[in-house]
């Protein structure tokens, strides 16, 4: 079940009016665009907890500064019954505009890793700790990492997402995602390649694909692939000789 973007925006504005002392408003141009917008968003459905959660996130206003700057929330993508779930830190500019996590250059590398593991974006699940893009100063480009407070504020949604999907294995991509999930900041070289746990779900920590784009060293790429081989072993997936010898 889907409902038009305009309905959701109206209910979000009503929620802001109830919860704050400022009067929300939308310009005539924006309202006109919403009437014509092809964007469709999930309705709340009692039979689909993940869709219900996505609708909650869609109208979330817990971080007013991010609500003002975001184009849309970025909930997650993939199979709601996935055995394997990847967690990054937050949407960037590409994800904010497309409404899907990991769609920029780093996302394309993640897709390649997933496909080399023998999966597709459709049969794993991909999400971020933060569901809104961290704001950046006007006139600047690029992305910024989410703050610990922003991640703590949004973490309950990710917790519920994980509880609903119940993956057999979680993969945290990068130190910021680890900090969001586990509340600790450590050196990636010490944390990666070992099993950790998030609420009793096995958690593998590896480098963020954006790190591999910045650092093209074959040894760093191989480390990520070795982490993924551990994930495949944990999932009980068959590993071919080609996969064993693969270098990203
Ligand atoms: S980042 Fe999370 S908690 Fe903050 S407004 Fe977005 S959805 Fe809500």
SSE topology sketch:
Blueprint lengths: L1 E3 H15 L8 H9 L3 E3 L6 H10 L5 H6 L7 E2 L5 E5 L4 H6 L6 H12 L8 E4 L19 H18 L3 E5 L1 H8 L5 H4 L3 E4 L2 E6 L2 H6 L3 H18 L5 H4 L4
Parallel strand pairs: 4-5, 4-6, 6-8
Antiparallel strand pairs: 1-2, 3-5, 7-8
Helix pairs in contact: 3-7
Bound molecules: iron/sulfur cluster.
The site of iron/sulfur cluster has 13 residues, from α4 and α7.
Keywords:
single chain; 248 residues; alpha/beta; six-stranded mixed sheet; two-stranded antiparallel sheet; 12 helices; globular; binds iron/sulfur cluster
Description:
It is built from twelve helices and eight strands. With 248 residues, it is of the alpha/beta class. The strands form two sheets. A six-stranded mixed beta sheet has the order 3-5-4-6-8-7, sandwiched between helices. Strands 1-2 form a two-stranded antiparallel sheet. The longest helix is centred in the middle third of the chain and has 18 residues, at 148-165. The protein is globular. The termini are far apart. The relative contact order is 0.12. Iron/sulfur cluster binds at residues 57, 60, 62-63, 66-67, 73, 130-132, 150, 153-154.
Beta-strand level of the residues, as a percent range? 5-15%
Helix-strand makeup class = alpha/beta
Number of helices: 12
Helix content: 40-55%
Overall residue-averaged pLDDT value: 88
Overall geometry: globular
Beta strand count? 8
Order of strands across the widest beta sheet?
3-5-4-6-8-7
The kinds of small molecule bound in this structure are: iron/sulfur cluster
Low-confidence spans: 36-40
Largest sheet: 6 strands, mixed
N-to-C terminal Cα separation, in Å? 40 Å
SSE series: EHHEHHEEHHEHEHHEEHHH
Radius of gyration: 19 Å
Oligomeric description of these chains: single chain
């Amino acid at each position: 079940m889907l409902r038009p973007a305009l309905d959701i925006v109206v209910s979000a504005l009503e929620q802001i009016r109830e919860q704050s002392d400022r009067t929300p408003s939308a310009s005539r141009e924006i309202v006109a665009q919403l009437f014509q917008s092809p964007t469709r968003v999930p309705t709340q459905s009692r039979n689909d907890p993940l869709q219900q959660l996505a609708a909650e996130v869609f109208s979330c206003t817990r971080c007013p500064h991010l609500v003002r700057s975001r184009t849309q929330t970025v909930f997650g993508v993939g199979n709601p019954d996935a055995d394997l779930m990847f967690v990054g830190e937050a949407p960037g500019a590409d994800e904010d505009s497309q409404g899907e996590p990991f769609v920029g250059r780093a996302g394309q590398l993640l897709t390649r890793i997933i496909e080399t593991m023998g999966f597709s974006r459709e049969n794993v699940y991909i999400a971020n700790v933060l569901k809104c893009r961290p704001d950046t100063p006007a006139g600047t480009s690029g992305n910024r990492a989410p703050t610990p407070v922003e991640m703590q504020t949004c973490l309950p949604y990710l917790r519920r997402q994980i509880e609903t999907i119940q993956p057999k294995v979680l993969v945290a991509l990068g130190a910021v995602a680890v900090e969001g999930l586990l509340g600790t900041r450590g050196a990636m070289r010490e944390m990666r390649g070992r099993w950790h746990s998030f609420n009793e779900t096995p958690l593998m920590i590896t480098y963020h694909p954006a790190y591999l784009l910045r650092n093209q060293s074959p040894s760093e790429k191989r480390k990520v692939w070795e982490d993924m081989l551990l994930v495949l072993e944990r999932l009980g997936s068959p590993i071919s000789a080609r996969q064993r010898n693969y270098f990203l």
